[in-house]
């Protein structure tokens, strides 16, 4: 089989014919179970046949959400298209797919799909030669053998070492292992960084801050939109950039505070304030200094004193909470009244790299006299020691009164909700499955997973990760991956590889030989959403997508639920103990429970009309109901979108109730107000033991931050790792997903972005192979020289599949977490966005472009 796919892959066929051939091969093999009768002629014949358009899932964590339709002929997708369910307009926009989504058929039907269960050649019970994990050969095995082996290993670990020896990640396997007595799992701040826990404490009612900004139609009323670390053009593909363009067309001026002049700023013709990673709190502290020192209520009103008085605590000595030292207020910290260090733009410039005069003019842009939106992405908060950043951002918004009013807001604009705040107007129901509680309370913090496994001890911070840290012993023998790409996407990948080579058994459910699969003993092929019963996807607040099954499961791939059900049987359970009803009934429950906003915008009502005939046709349990759209129509269209227009009932002004009447609408903080001085934040963080912070926002140097690039900060002598690297989320991928898709590899080569001056000083030319070294690991990439990353900052795109050259120990794929170490700070925040590195021209063999690397194809 391998030779068939090799010959297809490496033949001189046109790309279009290759895809058709590869796709047809996949389908014919899956339908026949085996066989190799494919010819390109048969592939061509298929495209001439009649097919039908089916709404196909684009189910990744990609920061967008789009309608993706597949033209299916005999189970093979021969074309794709996107939203044409209604004409496009700025108010009622189409949910248009990005290039990744449009290349989805190239992924699902890729020649590198895992076809059969596989066992590592030198694996034997107990592990065999564990050092071979990640570089062993693979042997095809039957499903029965694979499931028997996995069940036996789980049983052995439980009986010998107890359930605390099982580490697993994935909803379905979690369910199984909970039924089986429990397992250790993970928690983390993932996408949100410091926005995960800080907002709830300082007064924003939503952790993660997603509801802190106004909706897209209101934002068209802004005069100035200040973006801090925000790149919807890359990280919120689909429609958000289109909404930002409407704001620009309505007259908004844009500013981008970022180490990278990204495509969003270019699109919006934003003024660029180049600033170093992890130093935003310092920059914004000096913005506050400028506002305080330049404000004059009669001649130069910059600060909204009324807002500060009504809506905040801790700004000055008069507004401190009871029991707090009045000297610890924010204003006196900024002015240096008691510590003798005024936080002037000159003070900040040394840290953040922004010219003092640029800081002063930035500060003036926040003036209370204009309609300003201050919108931050999450990336700047995915740094070490930035737990105070959301508080600092809120403080600037509060000082200038840009919260809670039309045309004014301050908060998070990121992911699928970029540029469009507010609750979902339409949402699917729940699957109805009863939960299975985990009898164990152990959970590893993301930044600690691999160290916990290697060292045999970890810091337990309570079930919600918010309690004072307590050290616990732990002894992991099994790692089970069935969701997420943990080895690839958590910090400290070299330590992660060590952990994978330590335990007795590693198993992964996978669609391709991903990183977690590669370092496993047993790999179980899973199907994709295109091969399952269907489901819902949500993204921006205005729509929900209902997708359907596109094709049968390819080869021997099965669903996660099928696999854990088979394991449950082998572990002594009845299938219905795990799943009382099947995947189709779960899907139907979501349909029946879907809700849509009522026309007055005040309530929700059922979305879908379901008849007795629908229920009979689906073969499920249910009750007929009246809704907004019939089930067949929803299935046909694949989407329900709420039509919006200026002045409708669906607008959203974040925090408006509180700002209008603070006394009667208290915020969820301790004081009920925005807390510029936040006792609970400091208490929790100082309790974890990872960092020490004050109740007011202050810049705290990070273990892998800018200050760490010096060996002598006072005399400004650079150390062994003089550059900062950051990991922008990249167009080729959704994290790790799509990294293997050839079309996308060809389109986006995944280089390392280096400022031209830095490259010149190291003798690096465009296309040269560059070695990046951090104190945690080494990786190679080809250089792309640019003026769009500020000097001293290197851009290494997030999510490439690690590919270690076992002779040198160097990763050749540009995997970000090879460089980022396992260093939790603050409230267990993963600071994986930035670390300190050295950069040099690589003396070894130059890298070939990713597109020329062989695909990982087996059998
Ligand atoms: N250094 C660094 N690290 C980061 C980041 C960074 O900026 N820098 N960003 C972080 C962020 S914001 C996030 S959200 C995380 C994302 O981290 P992950 O969630 O781990 O990343 P994904 O690549 O989305 O992983 C999804 C995995 O699930 C698999 N999969 C797809 N469908 C199914 C299915 O039906 N069943 C099973 N079992 N598996 C399936 C995919 O093949 C893929 O391997 O990464 C974080 N890591
Ligand atoms: N194509 C693609 N899109 C994605 C994803 C993907 O993997 N690929 N992942 C999705 C997910 S789960 C998430 S969480 C979001 C993440 O989306 P974001 O959190 O917005 O992350 P990024 O896109 O990495 O970075 C956004 C901008 O922040 C800047 N930045 C980085 N660090 C700092 C800093 O310390 N200070 C300042 N001021 N700016 C900084 C970067 O240079 C970049 O311009 O993206 C989502 N969208
Ligand atoms: S933005 Fe996401 S959902 Fe939309 S097409 Fe791209 S990958 Fe798919
Ligand atoms: Mo994320």
UniProtKB/TrEMBL annotation:
Q: Which domain of life is it from?
A: Bacteria
Which PROSITE patterns does the annotation name? Answer: 4FE4S_MOW_BIS_MGD (PS51669), MOLYBDOPTERIN_PROK_3 (PS00932), TAT (PS51318)
What are the protein's GO molecular function terms?
Answer: electron transfer activity; iron-sulfur cluster binding; molybdenum ion binding; molybdopterin cofactor binding; oxidoreductase activity
GO cellular component, alphabetical, reads:
outer membrane-bounded periplasmic space
The alphabetical list of record keywords is: Iron, Iron-sulfur, Metal-binding, Molybdenum, Oxidoreductase, Signal
User: Which InterPro entries does the UniProt record give?
Assistant: Asp_de-COase-like_dom_sf, MoPterin_dinucl-bd_dom, Mopterin_OxRdtase, Mopterin_OxRdtase_4Fe-4S_dom, Mopterin_OxRdtase_prok_CS, Prok_Mopterin_Oxidored, TAT_signal
**What is its cofactor?**
Mo-bis(molybdopterin guanine dinucleotide)
Q: Which biological processes are named by the entry's GO terms?
A: anaerobic respiration
All residue ranges annotated as the 4Fe-4S Mo/W bis-MGD-type domain in the record: 51-112
Entry-linked PANTHER family: DIMETHYL SULFOXIDE REDUCTASE DMSA (PTHR43742:SF3), TRIMETHYLAMINE-N-OXIDE REDUCTASE (PTHR43742)
Q: Its family?
A: Belongs to the prokaryotic molybdopterin-containing oxidoreductase family.
Name of the molecule in the record: Dimethyl sulfoxide reductase subunit A
């Amino acid at each position: 089989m391998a030779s068939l796919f090799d010959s297809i892959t490496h033949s001189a066929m046109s790309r279009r014919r290759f895809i058709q051939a590869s796709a047809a091969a996949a389908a014919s093999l899956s339908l026949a179970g085996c066989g190799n009768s494919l010819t390109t002629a048969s592939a061509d014949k298929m495209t001439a046949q009649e097919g039908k358009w089916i709404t196909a899932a684009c189910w990744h964590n990609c920061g967008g959400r789009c309608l993706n339709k597949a033209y299916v002929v005999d189970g093979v997708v021969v074309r794709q298209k996107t939203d044409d369910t209604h004409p496009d307009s700025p108010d009622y926009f189409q949910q248009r797919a990005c290039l990744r989504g449009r290349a989805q058929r190239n992924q699902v039907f890729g020649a590198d799909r895992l076809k059969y269960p596989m066992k590592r050649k030198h694996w034997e019970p107990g592990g065999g030669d564990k050092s071979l994990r990640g570089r062993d050969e693979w042997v095809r095995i039957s499903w029965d053998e694979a499931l028997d082996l996995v069940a036996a290993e789980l049983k052995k670990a439980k009986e010998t070492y107890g359930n605390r020896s099982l580490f697993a990640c994935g909803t379905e396997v979690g369910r199984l292992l909970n039924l089986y007595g429990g397992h250790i799992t993970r928690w983390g701040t993932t996408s949100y960084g410091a926005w995960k826990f800080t907002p709830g404490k300082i007064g924003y009612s939503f952790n993660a801050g997603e509801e802190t900004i106004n909706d897209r139609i209101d934002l068209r009323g802004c005069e100035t939109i200040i973006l801090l670390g925000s790149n919807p053009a890359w990280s919120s593909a689909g429609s958000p950039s289109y909404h930002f363009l409407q704001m620009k067309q309505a007259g908004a001026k844009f500013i981008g505070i970022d180490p990278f002049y990204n495509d969003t700023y270019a699109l919006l013709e934003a003024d660029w304030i180049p600033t170093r990673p992890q130093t935003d709190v310092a920059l914004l502290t000096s913005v506050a200094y400028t506002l305080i020192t330049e404000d004059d209520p009669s001649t130069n009103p910059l600060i909204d004193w009324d807002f500060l008085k009504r809506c905040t605590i801790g700004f000055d000595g008069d507004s401190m909470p009871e029991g707090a030292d009045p000297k610890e207020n924010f204003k006196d910290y900024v002015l240096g009244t008691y510590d003798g260090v005024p936080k002037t733009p000159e003070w900040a410039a040394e840290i953040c790299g922004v010219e003092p005069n640029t800081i002063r003019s930035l500060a003036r842009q926040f003036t209370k006299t204009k309609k300003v939106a201050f919108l931050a992405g999450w990336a700047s908060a995915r740094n070490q020691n930035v737990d105070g950043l959301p508080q600092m951002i809120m403080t600037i918004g509060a000082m200038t009164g840009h919260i809670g009013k039309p045309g004014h807001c301050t908060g998070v604009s990121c992911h699928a909700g970029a540029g469009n705040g507010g609750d979902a107007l339409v949402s699917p129901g729940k699957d109805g499955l009863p939960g299975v509680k985990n009898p164990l309370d152990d959970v590893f913090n993301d930044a600690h997973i691999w160290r916990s496994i290697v060292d045999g001890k970890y810091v337990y911070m309570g079930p919600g990760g918010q309690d004072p840290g307590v050290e616990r012993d732990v002894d992991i023998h099994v790692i089970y991956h069935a969701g997420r790409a943990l080895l690839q996407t958590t910090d400290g990948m070299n330590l992660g590889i060590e952990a994978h080579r330590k335990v007795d058994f590693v198993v992964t459910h996978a669609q391709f030989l991903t990183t977690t699969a590669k370092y496993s003993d047993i790999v179980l092929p899973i199907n994709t959403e295109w091969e399952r019963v269907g489901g819902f996807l949500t993204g921006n607040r205005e729509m929900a997508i209902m997708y359907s099954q596109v094709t049968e499961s390819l080869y021997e791939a099965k669903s996660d639920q099928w696999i854990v059900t088979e394991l449950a049987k082998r572990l002594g359970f009845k299938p219905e103990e795990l799943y009382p009803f099947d995947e189709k009934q779960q899907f139907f429950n979501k349909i029946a429970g879907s809700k849509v906003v009522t026309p007055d915008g005040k309530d929700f009502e059922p979305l879908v009309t379901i008849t007795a005939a629908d229920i009979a046709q689906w073969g499920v349990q249910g009750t007929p109901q009246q809704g907004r759209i019939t089930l067949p129509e929803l299935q046909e269209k694949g989407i329900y979108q709420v039509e919006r227009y200026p002045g409708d009932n669906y607008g959203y002004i974040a925090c408006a109730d509180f700002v209008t009447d603070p006394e009667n609408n208290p915020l969820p903080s301790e004081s009920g107000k925005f807390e510029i001085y936040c006792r609970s934040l400091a208490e929790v963080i100082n309790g974890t033991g990872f960092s020490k912070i004050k109740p007011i926002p202050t810049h705290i140097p990070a273990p892998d931050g800018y200050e760490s690039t010096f060996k002598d900060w006072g005399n400004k002598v650079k150390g062994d790792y003089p550059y900062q690297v950051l990991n922008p989320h990249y167009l080729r991928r959704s994290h790790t997903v799509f990294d293997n898709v050839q079309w996308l590899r060809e389109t986006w080569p995944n280089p390392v972005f280096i400022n031209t001056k830095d490259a010149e000083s190291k003798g690096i030319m465009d296309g040269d192979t560059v070695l990046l070294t951090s104190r945690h690991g080494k990786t190679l990439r080809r250089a792309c020289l640019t003026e769009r990353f500020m000097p001293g900052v290197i851009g290494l795109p997030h999510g490439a599949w690690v590919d270690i050259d076992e002779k040198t120990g160097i990763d050749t794929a540009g995997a970000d977490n090879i460089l980022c170490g396992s260093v939790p700070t603050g409230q267990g925040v993963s600071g994986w966005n930035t670390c300190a590195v050295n950069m040099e021209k690589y003396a070894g063999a130059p890298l070939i472009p990713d597109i020329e690397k062989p695909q990982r194809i087996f059998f």
